[in-house]
Amino acid sequence: MSTPTIKVSLKEIESKKIDIRKLTLNEISEELKKLGEPKFRAKQVWQWLWEKSATSFDEMTNLSQKLREILKENFTINSLTIAEEQKSSDRTIKSSFRLYDGKIVEGVLIPTTDRMTACISSQVGCSLSCKFCATGYMGKKRNIEAAEIYDQVVAISRQAEENYGQPLSNIVYMGMGEPLMNYRNVLQSIDRLTSPDGLNMSPKRITVSTAGIAKFIKMLADDGVKFNLALSLHAANDKKRNEIMDINDSNSLDVLAEALKYFYDKTGNRITYEYILFDDFNDSLKDADELYRFCKHVPCRVNIIEYNPIQEAEYKKPTEDRIEKFAGYLIKRGVRTTVRRSRGKDIDAACGQLANKKG
What is the residue extent of each domain of the chain? Predict the structure, then answer.
């Protein structure tokens, strides 16, 4: 009786390998030691992964061919690829990134006269279901790994250099997903982006935006983070915020204010409040006064953001006059206030529009 042939696909073999970027330097050293390689090889591999952003072992040219083959036999590098790239009339570039498992996330390069900003995603979809955000209507598919977040920055950085001849200057975790619901991977990615043995970017040029989860804001404070924190506020009274953001049910404004005070006392970092104006909902002078009073809790600045319509919601953008009056109310009372004009609206790359419609 003949033994049946068992066919195993290359994809199945690859899936059983360890993703080497999930290992620490010490863990890589231990793995290489088991394979009979000297300790210093681990540092060389680490530099290729995190300083030179290698996506294959063949790129590691200061390693012997034999060692590169050994690495390929035992490990994998689950890097992302660009599935689609769209360029806006205002020079904004939106990328659809294909992850190793085929899932798609989106990231955006936002060029201005004085900076190149990467807006990156932390989750495939989002579980928070904010009523005005296209991503929230997707639901959450999975968290994005630290290395996948890092890869988004590398890819967008290359776009900045190739298209505009300028280096990436800023990173905002304001794409798809709630960063603090992917706490470990977000902090690990920032470590790789800011470490001298990573991309060596300044944490002061990185902003993490949250819909407002008090326990994680306090955790950031206890972890002594150096990056900037932004809170997606959008209403400064609980009734209105409950209506548009389900997270406010369990993280009321009083609870958030206490967490933000804790964060500021521990880190000394000024908070940014993001406030999208919706026509005839949160754009009156009474709303502006409520925001002004909320701003008294901690040193802060306010970014007023244009609303970008999505097909799932019926909110509208206020008139320019109402926007200016709202901003003026805050400015007259000493609140540092900026009106942020949307970029990339014609390619659905603006705030609240990322939803991977083709994925």
Answer: 11-76, 81-347
Burial of 271: CB neighbours in 10 Å, binned 0-12, 13-18, 19+: buried
Pick the CATH number of 11-76 from 1.20.120.530, 3.40.50.720, 1.10.150.530, 1.10.1040.50: 1.10.150.530
Residues assigned a catalytic role: 106, 351
| Residue listed under structure tokens 């001849």 | 165
Task: Write the CATH number of the domain with boundaries 81-347.
Answer: 3.20.20.70
Q: Is 237 exposed, middle or buried (0-12, 13-18, 19+ CB in 10 A)?
A: middle
Helices 146-164/183-194 angle, 10° precision: 50
Contacts of 117 by beta carbon, 8 Å cutoff, 6+ apart: 109, 110, 111, 168, 169, 170, 171, 172
- At 239-264, the pLDDT tens digits run 999 999 999 999 999 999 999 999 99
**Six token digits for residue 101:** 């498992």
82 and 96 Cβ atoms separated by less than 8 Å: yes
